[in-house]
Structures are given as C-alpha cells and as structure tokens.
Amino acid sequence: MRRLFVRALARPLALAATAAAIPLVSAVPAAADSVVVGGFPVDVAQSPWTVAVSSRDRFGGTRAGQFCGGAVVGPTTVLTAAHCMGEEVLGGPPAKVRDLKVVAERTHLLSGEGREIPVREVRVNPAYDAAGNAGDFAVLTLAEALPQQDVIAMAAAGDPAYAPGTSALVYGWGDTSGAGDYTTGLRAARVHVLSDAQCRRAYPGGEEGAYLAESMLCAGETQGGRDACQGDSGGPLVAGGRLIGLVSWGSGCGRPGSPGVYTRVSDVVTRLSGA
Ligand code: ARG
Fold this sequence. Notes:
With 275 residues, this protein is α+β, with helices and mostly antiparallel strands. The protein has a single domain (40-204, 211-274), classed as Trypsin-like serine proteases (Thrombin, subunit H), CATH 2.40.10.10. 12% of the residues lie in helices and 28% in strands. It has 5 helices and 14 strands. The strands form 2 sheets. It has a 6-stranded antiparallel beta barrel with strand order 9-10-11-14-13-12. It has a 6-stranded antiparallel barrel with strand order 2-3-4-7-6-5. A hairpin with a 2-residue loop joins strand 3 (66-74) and strand 4. Arginine is lined by residues 21, 24-25, 174, 227-233, 247, 249-250, 253, 260. Belongs to the peptidase S1 family. GO terms for molecular function: peptidase activity. This is Serine protease. Residues 1-32 form the signal peptide.
C-alpha cells in the first residue's frame, strides 16, 4: 500500500479535498484506465442503506466532505472500510476528526436532502492488516438513529449471494473515469461475484496485491468496464437484497483481469458476533 500512496501523491490532483482518500486506491496511474465504474445514476431511495462518510474539516466542503462510502447495518450502525479510518486518509486518529459524519438519505452530495449524523464512536477491526488489506472494515456508531427501513441485512457465511456468478450492485460517489472525475450524484454499477480461484489468479500477491478468501471477495466483469473506484471505498456491494461486500481495493479501476476486491461481509458478521 505504501507504493500506492507514493504514486497517488505524485499525481496532480484537481480536487485537493479528496486527495487523501485517493492514495489507498489505485495501483496504476489513472490515465491507464480506459473506462471505470461504467455505472448509472441511482436515487438513494432505491438504496437507503448507502451513506457517505464525510469530514468538511479534513476534506473541504466541495463534496460535503465526502471521502468514503458506508453501509447502514443497524439504526445506529454503519460499516465502512478500515482503511477509510486510517491515518493516511484522516491525517491522524479518527478521534481527532471532530466533524466525522455520516450523510444519509442524500442522492446529491451538495443538496440539503437527508440527514448528516455525527459519528459517536469508531471501532476499527482489530484484525485489520493495513499492509495486506485483510479484514478491511470499521464499525461506526451514530449519534442519532436512522429508520429501520434504511437498514440492510448482512449476508452470513453460506448465503447463496456469495456464489460465483451472482449479479451484484456496487454503490458510491467515487471516481467515474479513473482520472479523478468525482461524481456528486450517487451511482451504481452492476458486477458479478467471481470465484475465489479467479480472484486468486487476478491477485496472486506481489505487485498486484494478494487476494485472501477468508476476509475478501472479488467481483467484476471479464471485459472490464464496470467497477468501483477511488472514493467508493467502504461503500456497499449488494446481492439478493443483502450486503455481501464493502469496497476495499483493486488494481486500477475497471480493467479487464483486475476485478474489484471487497471486504467479505460474512467475515464481518463472524467477527461482530464474537465467534
Ligand atoms: N481503495 C479505494 C478507495 O479508497 C477503492 C478502490 C476500489 N478499486 C476498485 N478497482 N474496485 O476509495
């Protein structure tokens, strides 16, 4: 991940506000990416569990402070990526970010829609490995409750939604081109869950990173073109109405042979239940 950080810093950044979220992202210069997300606009009413994680103090107000995504899994519980709560992104420990918020029920970041709810507590998965990206999740506790209809169920281990070939949607406000074109409107892209063998082949370790089936899953399209990208991290991957993944990492965005890698939500379920 250090390699990625350096690369991203060397890149000119049009949006200084979101610069800090970018480092954790792309192993390849953005210009090398042909197409990215390949998604379509959605209204948050269709996916009310999708929230933006924001800090205007840290990232400025041009995107309401959005720097990562999150998924509502309980009225006061949001999952995001552990790396979103890392020092490289936040510039210090999460407790130092005074205005850490979740923006809920808002499609367009700059509209006044929905609610901004302060984050009361941040718990980073103690098993998170920042070097290899294993166990990339954090649990945010909100200061106010969201309605139950915003909550999405987490798919536990053995859920058929994890089967290779399953069609899934990934949601976010991230880069739509791989060149720093951050959207202010929520988008989704359709991708398919791949087998662990395919994911391992794509990411055998070394330069491209290592796929670890226990805490990760991967999804994409053989021809590329549809994927999550920078700024989508922590956001939901949903299949069969259940949460199966959180946007975590990938090599470039939407490149054939380099699927998106997600935090496997069944591992989150296992760890949260203390098993
Ligand atoms: N780590 C990125 C972020 O911080 C997400 C990268 C996802 N990349 C991908 N090709 N699916 O926003």
